[in-house]
């Protein structure tokens, strides 16, 4: 016995000695086994960085919400005096149905779940899918106040976009995603959220400590904390106020005209900063609505034919080369390139011999062909390259397209002068026009102002204005601006709809044919199948903003033209933005007006003179001396340039109806008792009875109305 027990004692002694010396049992490290059993760790999730505008206003940030969990296993309440599981399922279902977007029956069925998990164990808790996630703090508090046993809330973070649709295709979106390590994190899926996901995500921290079998911290154990490093904050060049101006205007036009697409961008030409950008269709990153129709960032990834906006740069090249002769004339209508005819937009009829200045104002394609001949093909293409077309701008966004400048054949070079055939991106147009607006210095566009580490306040990255090139001189840029302002102010101008009463605007309209998706060829089905655009700036003397707006395939009314939807967006956004930036208006014109009084019984001659002083035209019905009726009526306001109808006794003569609106025609018809037949819509073009003829109430007067002139091609 002594020998046996002695042997066992020595065996145990040597075993313990070996374990102490090696730290291993059967090839396994005891320290590691102990750590696995008693050491605990918990991830400290880093906050995702915030995306802000140039003024520091939030565009995207993390917010806390809650996930509802129902404990349904009675085992959770064992050994406690307090119910820790859902005991009264009917009551719980009834109350939860008041707060969650799910029926009481579905909640009750969920609470009665009897299934087992993959390991064969009883399911102890259930969730309610989308209805039980993303619960706000207010709803969580309301449910908690009901004191329902077994109902608990798990705190989570969610990406919050407080502005809804707001530069969405630029900002992108981020969503919760389960990673390979099993942790749920917010991950950028699109736009800047995806591009700068690494910078925004930060680094998770960790807490490590020793605990007993029940998870309680062991006495005298060390607790090691590795703090989380929050994600960087990204400051954009976007100005929230200007962006809101743009979004509101885009939404109104999109609703009214239901176009196939829209894209608009506002920039500071002196720095290249993008102040606002929007497109339609778009999506709401907060709830994901519209995502199925809007993946492409049209600002940088869309290539389009620029149409006549390209004439801006053809004009600049001609002036810079000393080949611009504004008063010289050319024959408009048609120009032959070999055997291929190039025509003006009015069915190649043209306007006879016109000056080059008038050619710009009328947006003559033939005028551009003649300018190309003066400039020279190779020299012209060199200017196209200098303005940055055919290559990436280098904007701080991925997947930027280059477009394609066609210059292989003579016909390609001619059509490129007026923006047909060759393709560009909206951001290339913005970069190029910055040279026109910024005294010849072309600025590289950018959207990221700076990236800041919130933990140290260190600026990790900061963009500064970069001169991309100097394609033209200061003198040329000023002359281009002045010439293009006449497209708005001239009687022959194609951009009259873009006139402002407060700021002098300069720019060029464009109309580009769009291909038919079924054939790949240009769609010839009429005015509703064009891309209408405008590339402009203001104020002319020292432009503070440049803007590009394009509307593809709008649903125009019978009398509407392509400049209407584009001008609504441009005029609203440009005017509001300049005022917001405290840019002093250049030309506020006070329009004279006159309040109507009761004119009955007054002499026609005296009243005519009084209205004439304020530039108000009178239409006299009858040949009497005194007024018997009037329109507008007493206390109405009449602006300078308006019409006042004055009725007298005696015979009336037929007026010259030319350019009268339908409203004025109907007013005259009612007051004069004339028999008028109206053909068409818009404004009067012709009349069947000669002006000055005595009005015969029985004789029909036929008025042929015309639609408003198609403002640009």
UniProtKB/TrEMBL annotation:
It is found in: Membrane. The keyword Membrane applies. InterPro entries: Beta-lactam/transpept (IPR050515), Beta-lactam/transpept-like (IPR012338), PASTA_dom (IPR005543), PBP_dimer (IPR005311), PBP_dimer_sf (IPR036138), PCN-bd_Tpept (IPR001460). Keywords: Membrane. Belongs to the transpeptidase family. PANTHER family: PENICILLIN-BINDING PROTEIN 2B, PEPTIDOGLYCAN D,D-TRANSPEPTIDASE. This is Penicillin-binding protein 2B (PBP-2B).
């Amino acid at each position: 016995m002594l020998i046996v027990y002695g042997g066992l004692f020595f065996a145990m002694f040597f075993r313990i000695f070996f374990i102490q010396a090696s730290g291993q049992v059967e090839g396994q490290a005891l320290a590691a086994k102990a750590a696995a059993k008693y050491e605990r760790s918990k991830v400290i999730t880093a906050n995702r960085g915030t995306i802000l505008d140039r003024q520091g206003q939030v565009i995207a940030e993390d917010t806390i919400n809650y996930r509802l969990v129902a404990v349904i296993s009675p085992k959770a309440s064992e050994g406690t005096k307090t119910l820790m599981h859902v005991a009264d399922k009917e009551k719980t279902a009834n109350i939860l149905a008041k707060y969650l977007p799910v029926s009481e029956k579905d909640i009750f069925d969920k609470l009665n779940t009897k299934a087992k998990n993959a390991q064969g164990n009883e399911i102890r808790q259930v969730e309610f899918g989308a209805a039980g996630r993303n619960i706000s703090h207010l709803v969580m508090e309301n449910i908690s106040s009901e004191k329902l046993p077994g109902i608990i809330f798990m705190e989570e973070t969610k990406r919050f976009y407080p502005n809804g649709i707001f530069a969405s295709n630029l900002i992108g979106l981020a969503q919760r995603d389960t990673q390979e390590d099993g942790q749920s994190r917010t991950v950028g899926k699109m736009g800047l959220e995806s591009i700068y996901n690494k910078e925004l995500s930060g680094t998770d921290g960790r807490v490590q400590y020793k605990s007993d079998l029940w998870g309680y911290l062991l006495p005298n154990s060390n607790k090691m904390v590795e703090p989380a490093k929050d994600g960087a904050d990204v400051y954009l060049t976007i100005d929230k106020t200007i962006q809101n101006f743009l979004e509101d205007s885009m939404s109104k036009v999109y609703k009214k005209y239901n176009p196939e697409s829209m894209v608009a961008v506002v920039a500071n030409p002196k720095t290249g900063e993008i102040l606002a950008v929007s497109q339609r269709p778009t999506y709401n990153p907060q709830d994901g609505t519209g995502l199925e129709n809007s993946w492409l960032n049209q600002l940088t990834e869309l290539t389009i034919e620029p149409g006549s906006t390209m004439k801006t740069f053809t004009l600049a090249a001609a002036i810079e080369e000393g080949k611009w002769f504004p008063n010289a004339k050319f024959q408009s209508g048609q120009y032959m390139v070999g055997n291929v005819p190039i025509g003006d937009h009015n069915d190649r009829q043209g306007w006879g011999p016109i000056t080059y200045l008038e050619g710009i104002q009328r947006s003559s394609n033939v005028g551009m062909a003649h300018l190309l001949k003066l400039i020279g093909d190779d020299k012209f293409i060199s200017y196209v390259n200098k303005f940055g077309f055919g290559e990436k701008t280098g904007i701080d966004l991925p997947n930027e397209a280059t477009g394609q400048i066609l210059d292989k054949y003579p016909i390609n070079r001619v059509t490129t002068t007026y923006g047909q055939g060759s393709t560009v991106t909206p951001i290339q147009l913005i970069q190029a026009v910055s040279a026109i607006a910024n005294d010849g210095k072309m600025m590289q566009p950018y959207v990221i102002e700076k990236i800041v580490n919130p933990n140290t306040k260190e600026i990790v990255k900061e963009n500064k204005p970069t001169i991309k090139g100097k394609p033209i001189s200061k003198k040329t840029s000023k002359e281009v601006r002045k010439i293009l302002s006449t497209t708005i102010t001239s009687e022959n101008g194609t951009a009259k709809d873009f006139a402002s009463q407060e700021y002098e605007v300069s720019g060029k309209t464009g109309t580009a044919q769009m291909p038919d998706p079924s054939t790949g060829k240009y769609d010839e089905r009429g005015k509703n199948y064009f891309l209408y655009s405008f590339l402009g700036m203001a104020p002319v003397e020292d432009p503070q903003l440049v803007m590009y707006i394009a509307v593809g395939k709008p649903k125009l009314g019978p009398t509407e033209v392509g400049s209407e939807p584009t001008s609504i967006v441009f005029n609203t956004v440009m005017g509001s933005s300049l005022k917001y930036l405290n840019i002093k208006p250049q030309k506020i014109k006070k329009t004279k007006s006159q309040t109507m009084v009761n004119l009955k019984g007054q002499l026609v001659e005296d009243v005519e003179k009084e209205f004439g002083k304020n530039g108000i035209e009178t239409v006299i019905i009858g040949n009497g001396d005194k007024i018997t009726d009037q329109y507008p009526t007493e206390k109405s306001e009449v602006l300078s340039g308006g019409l006042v109808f004055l009725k007298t006794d005696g015979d009336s003569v037929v007026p010259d109806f030319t350019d009268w609106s339908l409203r004025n025609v109907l007013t005259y018809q009612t007051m004069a008792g004339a028999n008028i037949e109206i053909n068409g819509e818009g404004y009067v073009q012709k009349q069947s009875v000669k002006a000055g003829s005595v009005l015969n109430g029985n004789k029909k007067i036929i008025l042929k109305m015309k639609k408003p002139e198609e403002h640009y091609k």
